[in-house]
Amino acid sequence: MEKQRISWLDGFRAIAVISVMVYHLTSPFKVHKPDFFSYIFRYGSLGVQLFFMISGFVISYTLQRTTGFWAFHVNRFARLFPAMLLCSLLTYGFACWIDYPVAFPRAHFSENLLPGLTFINPQLWSLVFRADFHWINGSYWTLWTEVQFYLLASIIYFTNKRHFLTNLLIIGIALSCLKYLPGYGLNNYPDQLASVGLTEFFRGWNYTNELFNLCFFIGWFLMGALFYRLYAIGWSWRWQISFILVFVFLVRDNFYYFSTISWSLCAGLVLFCSLFFWLILRKQQLRVPGDIFFRRVGVISYSMYLIHEDIGLLLINHFNHVMGSLGFLAPFVVIMLVVGFAEFSFRWYERATAKFLKQRLIRADQFNDHP
């Protein structure tokens, strides 16, 4: 019953994944023949921030229904790894098969499977092996950010369950301030990087691939956690002040990222918060045309996110001419193919593999089918 009450989260996931997909698949920087869709969907990348807000809510919900630290992380691993394994191998296979002339060189090297399959930033693997590692698919950088939040939130929760959300908020805001310190991050240490031959590798990387990049996005997770507090208990005046503080932090981050105000990011923040407020306070489901299909897209959104970018763009760039004058619709055809793949993967592969992993790694009474 509880899971049904918050099934509107699947609607949010659908919004997020569709936004990211149309952004990537119509990007003028990645598609050979950009068209007007490139400009309509140029703000679709904000779906990533919505994903982070959803995670802040879901992880807060899940931790309070998990028996222990090990069980929580096994459940997370069992949820994430099967789809990552399948989608990484398919991305590698497609790149080796049809990526000529080469558009995604990093997807041609099998060693680049390692960062995705371990959910660990390739910079760390590069430091360990003194070699050049990258994400095999550029979209995978968000998984490293998510994993950092899982670890932080679980440590805080199992250290002091009673004051979890308060401690998460305090520590999260403190972490958010790290990025303002002078010389933060590996990109600011060229001499040290040169000593291990990694100067060229790190050159040009931005905050999305920073070695410890949670501080750049922790505010979005905190916003989701605050909405969980509103959903589960309600807000006192202290929590209302906390919401305003986190909101201000996120707006202030605009100046750090872009050296100016990003009105699109602010608009996205206001829109996402408005949706959360509306659905939590009115206690209604997200209702849109085709609601059942839309919510199902949210359920299978994880593998959609993992598979869409490299393979989708390869299919568009190589085969959109087959559609003739309707070639401009190729991104939407690819999206439908991605939905079909994700449904098949989730129904026949991901759930069974996740169950198998849980059976091998934790006791049956610790299973946690969180939202």
Write structural notes for this entry.
It is a single chain. The protein is mostly helical and 371 residues long. The chain has one domain (2-366). Helix content is 67%, strand content 0%. The longest helix has 32 residues, at 330-361. Residues 186-205 have low confidence and may be disordered.
Task: Looking at this protein, list some descriptive labels.
globular, 371 residues, single chain, mainly alpha
Outline of this structure?
The chain is mostly helical. The chain is built from 17 helices and no strands.
Strand segment count = 0
How many structural domains? 1
Q: Mind describing the biggest β-sheet?
A: none
Helix content: 55-70%
* Element pattern in H and E: HHHHHHHHHHHHHHHHH
Please identify the oligomeric state.
single chain
Q: Give me the secondary-structure category.
A: mainly alpha
How large is the share of residues in beta strands?
under 5%
Shape: globular
| Poorly predicted ranges | 186-205
Number of distinct helices: 17
Estimated radius of gyration:
21 Å
Please state the average pLDDT score. 84
Blueprint (SSEs and pairs):
Blueprint: H1 2-5, H2 8-25, H3 37-40, H4 47-63, H5 69-98, H6 113-118, H7 122-129, H8 141-159, H9 164-176, H10 190-195, H11 199-202, H12 214-232, H13 237-258, H14 263-282, H15 291-299, H16 301-319, H17 330-361
